[in-house]
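Board notes (copied after class):
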Amino acid sequence: MNGCKVGIVICFEGWFPESSRELMLKGAQIICHTALTCQERTLDIMRIRAIENKVYLILANSISTEYHNNESITFRGDSRVIDYDGNILVNAGQEEKLITAEK
């Protein structure tokens, strides 16, 4: 990534602003967020983290269905790259695929 500093946030950490802020203050220009989410609001929160920290954010979200105690949980996919203004540069949608973005 040509000298670019990258920070990593895992799953529910992304909901709390302190994690992303600390990474940005330590020089991260891109924050990568791995997740298992099924909620639309998580996608909104990731846009907010990108905007409030003026960083690019890469959300890698699972697209699958898991079963626990006779209940199913479906993870929505929608992996995406978000710029520092909150614009979604690319969205994988609800299928498994490799996505890339250039700015």
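Comment from the instructor: The CA atoms of residues 65 and 71 lie 10 Å apart. The helical segments are 17-25, 40-53.
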